[in-house]
Specification:
CATH superfamily: Uncharacterised protein PF07273 family, DUF1439
Mean pLDDT: 84
CATH topology: Bactericidal permeability-increasing protein, domain 1
CATH architecture: Super Roll
Distance between the termini: 9 Å
Strand content: 35-45%
Order of helices and strands: HEHEEEEEEHEHEE
Largest sheet: 7 strands, antiparallel
Oligomer: single chain
């Protein structure tokens, strides 16, 4: 047990100078850049959602933003509404923010605890926007709930595994995420 605690402190203290040398002060752990997250999310879009046979909502890849002060991410998703209920296609946006969780079964970092910000369609009638806002939470949940933002590789976890560590907390920092490492249960 003491060896594990000693090795954990060595590993964590070794990562701190590297983060500081890069010009950023980050908590110790495995760093994931925001560009890696954006690339993973981009590959899961576009998505199409039919709404009660009246229209289709086409959701494009979101633009991710880091909310380090709240330890969350936000996403603004471009949405296009078209179909029999509308006389022409309309462009809008759906904004959400969410927390992150680690899924050990596939070593993924996933979105969860979604909060809908706003669904905006500037060229649509208010009644239609109200109808869409009824579907907004379900749309946001389908589009982003449990979306995989990143997979940790075997190589990412090789050293921590040898030291008896596993991924723990996920911290949002100014330029990405830091996956903290904690001792594995005995």
């Amino acid at each position: 047990m003491r060896r594990r605690a000693f090795m954990s402190s060595v590993l964590l203290s070794a990562s701190l100078p590297m983060a500081q040398a890069a010009g950023r002060e980050r908590p110790p752990g495995h760093f994931i850049a925001v560009a890696q997250l954006q690339e993973a999310v981009d590959g899961r879009f576009p998505l199409r959602y039919p709404v009660a046979g009246m229209l289709d909502l086409d959701v494009q890849a979101p633009r991710l933003q880091l909310l380090a002060a709240r330890n969350r991410l936000s996403a603004e998703l471009p949405v296009r509404a078209a179909g029999p209920a509308l006389n022409r296609p309309h462009a809008g946006t759906l904004s959400v923010d969410f927390a992150l969780r680690f899924e050990p079964s596939d070593r993924s970092i996933r979105a969860h605890q979604l909060q809908l910000g706003r669904l905006a369609f500037p060229t649509l009638q208010p009644g239609v926007v109200e109808l869409l806002n009824t579907y907004g939470p379900a749309l946001a949940s389908q589009a982003l709930q449990d979306v995989v933002l990143h997979h940790l590789t075997e190589q990412d976890l090789a050293m921590p595994n040898r030291l008896g560590l596993q991924p723990g907390s996920i911290t949002v920092v100014a330029d990405g995420l830091v996956v903290g490492l904690v001792a594995k249960p005995l």
